[in-house]
Amino acid sequence: MFKTLSVIGLGYIGLPTAAVFASRKVRVYGVDVNENTVSTINRGGIHIVEPDLDIIVRAAVTEGYLSASTKVSAADAFIIAVPTPFKENHVADLTYIEKACQALAPVLEQGNLVILESTSPVGATEKIAEWLAIARPDLTFPQSHGESSDIRIAHCPERVLPGHVLRELVQNDRVIGGMTPACSAAAVALYKTFVKGDCVITNSRTAEMAKLTENSFRDVNIAFANELSMICDKLDINVWELISLANRHPRVNILQPGAGVGGHCIAVDPWFIVDSCPDQARIIRMAREVNDSKPEWVLDKVKQQLDVWHKANPDAGRSHAKVAVLGLAFKPDIDDLRESPALDIALELADTGCQLLIVEPNITALPKQFSQPEVVLTDVRSALDADIICVLVRHSAFSVIKPELANHNAVVDAVGLLR
Ligand code: SAJ
């Protein structure tokens, strides 16, 4: 039924999705505004870190099932997988979705299916129908409860975990939020090309809210853990031990405290609910505030250690203190620095004028924001020379220095590496 597919947005979700469809012999046209991304993919390469993605992209390109372009081609179905960031005041920015609609509207044909995968505020899928209807008055589009239409539209949110994308794409259940039952049926038929989990049908608004709910649930649980970590610090209790004890209760399952909540999903999506219902979404807002405050709290802990060091070395200037930061990514064992609390903490530390040793095994060069010559990217063993060591991400590569770290006298362990 679906022989050709156009995937708009070839990032952390779009590219794996495109590659998995292509591996099932659907002819996939990938679209991205970034010319480097397009040429990398057309050479059979990838521009992101995700286990095994390189293998299936190379195979799909070599076999002629996947190609990329900056232009949208006609296809049986379209998947929109572009970013949905928020603006200054935490209001969702749908500009990329709107641009994707403008780009695909001219090639739309009767019978096509348009799917929004990007995490979106409630009502975004209906907006897509409105935008496309304005661009293509010659075609009919679904109303929320309408009859049949030329074009079918659905929201099928992605729910895969970075680092496990290829497995989760296939195994996870998929929420299928068609604007009409016919839209849902078409979307199920498309995803059943490779999804082994259940494709569960609902309407587009519930599908939008389901995705936001999943990430808000996790955010609230992490906020609880982060709040506990700050309480336990005051009460001189080891929070890691406390949580593992509490989690032995059959109905308690607390997540882990950390340096804050990063990434482009959990730190963003709950705000879409808060923005829609500011008076009702009180816990969701508070969780965001708690998690957003955690990097500052960790930074204060490092600064306290710096004060101790300066007291012990009264003649040494600021630039003599050597601080090591272990981890810059937004979570363990990935290269993604977007919305990373660890990166924010390291940038603030760089401004204090100390010598900063950064250990991030998943990148090969420091981001451009680090302009100071005293900041260097180094290996995990060199970090042990530092006067103060802060562990901001629990990368598996850091386990090798646990014994030395345990004997170091100035460690700020935000993630429980030494739990
Ligand atoms: N974190 C903690 N403590 C924990 C777990 C996570 O501090 O116990 C932090 C991480 O270090 C990171 C942030 O939370 O900074 C988010 O990491 P994550 O692994 O919880 O989630 P993401 O952002 O990589 O992926 C989430 C997933 N959502 C859920 O698990 C409900 C994923 O399934 C979604 O597809 C993804 O968001 C998305 O794209 O929305």
The gross shape turns out to be: elongated
Low-confidence stretches: none
Strand line-up in the sheet with most strands: 3-2-1-4-5-6-7-8
First CA to last CA: what distance? Answer: 53 Å
Count of the separate structural domains:
2
Give your account of this protein's structure.
The protein is α/β, with parallel strands linked by helices and 419 residues long. It folds into two domains: 4-197, NAD(P)-binding Rossmann-like Domain (Rossmann fold); 250-413, NAD(P)-binding Rossmann-like Domain (Rossmann fold, 3-Layer(aba) Sandwich), CATH 3.40.50.720. It is 39% helix and 13% strand. It contains 13 helices and 13 strands. The strands form two sheets. Strands 3-2-1-4-5-6-7-8 form an eight-stranded mixed β-sheet, with helices on both faces. β5 (113-116), α5 and β6 form a beta-alpha-beta unit. α8 runs parallel beside α11 and α11 runs parallel beside α12. It is elongated and about 80 Å long.
Give a short synopsis of this structure.
The protein folds into 2 domains: 4-197, 3-Layer(aba) Sandwich (Rossmann fold); 250-413, NAD(P)-binding Rossmann-like Domain (Rossmann fold, 3-Layer(aba) Sandwich). It contains 13 helices and 13 strands.
Annotation keywords:
419 residues, alpha/beta, Rossmann fold, 2 domains, eight-stranded mixed sheet, elongated, binds ligand SAJ
